[in-house]
Every structure is written in C-alpha cells, then in structure tokens.
Amino acid sequence: MSLAVFRDRLWDLALVFGGVSIVARSHAWTRFKAALANVHSLDMGDRLYQRDWDFRYWHGIGLRTAQYSILCSILWLFTKLLYP
Fold it and tell me: Could you tell me the pTM of the whole model?
C-alpha cells in the first residue's frame, strides 16, 4: 500500500467520522430537548432515566467520533507535510 493511498484513506476516515459526529450530536440534542419537555409530566415511571441514558449514549458517540476525526485529520496533515 503506497503512502498516497494511506493518505487518501486517512482523509476519507476524517470525513466519515466528522459526519457521524454531526449526526450523533444532533440526535443527542433532540433527545435532550425531548427529555426536558417531559420533565413536568406526572406519569413518568422510569422514562426519564431511559431518555437521560439515551442522551448520554449519543453524546458520547458524538464526542468519540469527533476525536477520531481530529486524529485522522492530524495524521493526514503530518503525512502530507512530511512526505509530499
């Protein structure tokens, strides 16, 4: 595998992880707004806990994929600068 192909794959991964991060963070935001809207409901049971867990789950996915996207972008930049 040549370095150019590796560099292209790093860039592709950075874009994919960035896109997944945006989707996960927007999904977490809609879950968070839904959890806030249902706080005042009297018949909640354990729905609030489930929604709170779901929000944290998607928020974690969004943060982790954003970190991977930044890491792939930095590696792509290093390979671009060191091996032109």
Answer: 0.76
